[in-house]
Amino acid sequence: MVDQTSTxxxxxxxxxxxxxxxxxxxxxxxxxxxxxxxxxxxLVLFALSLASIGYLLLGVGVLLLPAATAGLRRVxxxxxxxxxxxxxxEIARPxxxxxxxxxxPVGWVERVRWILTDxxxxxxxAWAVTxxxxxxxxxxxxxxxxxxxxxxxxxxxxxxPLTSAGYEDWYALVIHVHGxxxxxxxxxxPIGLASIALGLTTGxxxxxxxxxxxxxxxxxxxxxxxxxRVEQLAATRTEVVDSQAAELRRIxxxxxxxxxxxxxAMGMRIGAAEQLLSSDPEAARRLLAEVKDSxxxxxxxxxxxxxxxxxxxxxxxxxxxxxxxxxxxSPLIVEVVSDVPGRVxxxxxxxxxxxxxxxxxxxxxxxxxxxxxxDLAHSDNLLRISVSDDGHGGVDPDKGSGLRGIERRLxxxxxxxxxxxPESGPTMAILEIPCxxxxxxxxxx
Amino acid sequence: MRVVIAEDLVLLREGFVAILEAAGLEVxxxxxxxxxxxxxxxxxxxxxxxxxxxxxxxxxxEGLRAAIAARKEIPGLPVLVLSQYVEQLYARELLADxxxxxxxxxxxxxxxxxxxxxxxxxxxxxxxxLDPDVISKLLSGGRQSSALARLTPREREVLALMAEGRxxxxxxxxxxxxxxxxxxxTASIFARLDLPEDDDxxxxxxxxxxxxxx
Lengths: 445, 214
Known about the structure:
The complex is a heterodimer of chains A (445) and B (214). By secondary structure, chain A is an alpha+beta fold.
């Protein structure tokens, strides 16, 4: 993280790149070593996976393969993460989502099929077997150059102990390390220093190279990305359709038991009043008064229903003003700041409105907060709304069905809800929905 | 009394015309769109206008905007805004110019013709008529809780009725107490909210709302 931000900052200066290349980097060689260390378990797990595939028909492989590939995926994930952090090459996970498996042996076979039909499995294996060689050079080279350089610098001092022990070798292809100490041996020092310098300066570039190589095999293929996207779209579509159907059922029930029933009752009372009009005008008047009352109640029910479907103020004024109206109606002190210079599409507006409404309700009911701050902003095609309160926090995102509902609503627009609610507060929820602004806002009020 | 009506649904428009004419008022214009309303208000300068919030062409808060725009040209032009729903936000916007002659009611309040005509006359006379729904929202909002906490429950009731635009006599009748008891309550409310006492109905409401808005 820290490295990334500093890279970004440096990139802002002219000539930043050359300045960066010449810099001595002590971290990169060590990071290369750590990356290299990762290749050893990868190779072991590669062998294990391959053996499991070989033993599949014997049955042992069926039990062994999931464990071996799970291990390999963890190592590969570590490689993805470290390359993202150190080389600035973000690599997404490519694996097909895990389906539900049956219990017992059938489940084991399903599991194996799931692993073997995922192209990412084979790409992992290809990476595990080639990486120690290809990636290994890039990862190890800076550290190796430094180690070799240190040997060169120390060579004049080590000459006697080495040669007397019968050691014989060439250093840097030009100095023959054998026999008695010669003045030529001193050349090993500048060569060694150059080697150290090379190791310290090439580190970052080689890490970049290593990152790109890793991404080549471990990043999801275009096909896998599409596959994941299709999977996600299918899931959100199902949720949207389900929740829409449930919503329609609720509206139907509300109308049926509410306004519709009241209208029937009103018709009956009017009929009765008609009958009584001549015989008992006073009773007829009482009935009509009841009808009037009933029609008011029916209207009020319809009003609440409409508010739940699409609040009129949202339609009239758009998101920011509708959120202000929510704030006014809240029993808490709510401050609204908005920087949305236009209107977002109606479905997004509606989803965002109901999400804010739900969050505000949660803050009122559960947080013990006195104040709430709502901030709406739109930039870079992203609508960002934060709702924070001064309550006691400790909101469990898995507990409330309301929060799950918000997530579902937002998922249909690739929007996300981020919640931060430590014990003893405060709580902050951030909604982010990718969307474009339509016409600039016409003057309000 | 000369009245302008703005309502886009023919059935309701004719209903309003029938009710108002039955009460002996003169309907000088019955329009159905926002622009028509603005023009009618500015040219006819009625004694009071009955306006639906949602009007064509945009079917948003066209009627409200036209009413506010007309009141900018003719300060204090009496307008009674009717709607299927009430919003605090809109009530505050209507009252923002502090010149009175404003009503904001749910459409079904018309069912009680006597009360509706009462509200209409109050607005025409420069007073205020706010829907009890708006009042209850204003009174339960978070911003005012600290100020209102200083009032007794009975005083809150009186304040709510005052905000609807009722006179002391009407409040007394509603709460079934003597006129003197109401005067005592109102004096106490003004004292507790640090408002200077004023006999004028309209200015009482505006003062209360200004305080609530602050």
